[in-house]
Every structure is written in C-alpha cells, then in structure tokens.
Amino acid sequence: RSPSRGLGDVYKRQGWCSSTIALAQLQLAIGFTVPTFKTHAALLFEEVGVALARADEAELARLTTPSCLATMLPALRSRAKGEKHQWISHGVNASIKQIRLGHSSRNRDRKFAQVTCAIEAKMVYEVRDASGKLVGSTGSEAAPHAVTDFWVFERMLAEGGTWRLKERLGSFSELTSSTTTSTLENGTGKPSSPGG
Fold first, then answer.
1. Contact 55, 99 (CB under 8 A)
2. What is the bridge-based pairing of β-strands 145-156 and 164-171?
3. Phi-psi region of 49 (alpha: psi -120 to 50; beta: other; left: phi over 0)
4. What is the pLDDT of residues 152-171, one digit of tens each?
5. How far apart are CA 54 and CA 50, in angstroms?
C-alpha cells in the first residue's frame, strides 16, 4: 500500500466527518433535511437551465450568487440577435456529495453553507436562429443526452437566506480528466468565499 493512497483514505474519512458535522449544524440552524434539499437542488437545476436558455438575467440574479452570474453574463450577452435557446430536462436527481460551513473572512458572524451535489438528468438543449432553423443541439426528444453534472449551492445562514447556485464544477467527464483533477485536488476541502 502506497503512502499517498493511505493519505487519500484519511482525507476521505475526514471529508465524511466534516460533512456529517456540518449536516448536524445545518439541521439545528435552519431545519435542513437531506430529502428536502435534494428535491430543491433538482428544482434549482431545472430553473437555472430554463433561465439560462431564456437569457433571463433577472431570474438568474435570483437563482445564483453574484460571482456565478458574472461568469454567465458574457455568453448570454454575446448571443446572436433573435437566437432562441431551449432547455428541457427529465428525471433530474440530485445527490449530496459534500456539505461545508464557513464564514466571511471580513465578518465571522456572516456564516454560510455550501452543498456540493451530483446532478443526474436527461436533457435536450436546442439553439435556433432568428428564422427558427435548428443550428445546434445536445440530445433530442427521441434520445435525450444523459448528464452527470456537479454543482455547488450556497445559502447565507442569516434570516431569509435562500439556496442559490454558487458554481458549476463541471460534468463527470470534465472532472475526471487529468488536467481538471489535479486542479481540483489542489483546492479541495475549503469553502469558497461566500456570496460573491
């Protein structure tokens, strides 16, 4: 057994322990339950997808954090005039992979939770030009594209906080490529900064 494999086993156990403690704290703080969150995460996946397809910036501002929205806006604003996008998803299922709690570096009382989920779905994404001609697609109604995507949801723990998309980490195939994996390993285990 190699030393690096042993360290990986320790990290996995510590990650599980941290998520378990975070889960217990979330249950006390906001009445968090895993089944309810999984349903909500699946709904957010669908709502964000539809808002992206429609280029609905107001809805995306409600569903995402400011930093997440900032990464979406350039692509939305560079679409060809009259171009229409459509997002259809079926059988959306979310499973929790990690729960983290943190606080703002500037204000320790500004606490937040982040939940990383694997989202499995069958989807169809179509792009039509101004004349209605199909110019791009992923999947079709007859053969929807199966996807496993990893999303991080965030909620400020103050009164009135709501779950929003913080970051899309990527699809399973993107995350298992050697370049992406080494990048992810360097930053694992630390919550990203809140609300940004």
1. no
2. antiparallel
3. alpha
4. 999 998 767 899 999 998 87
5. 6
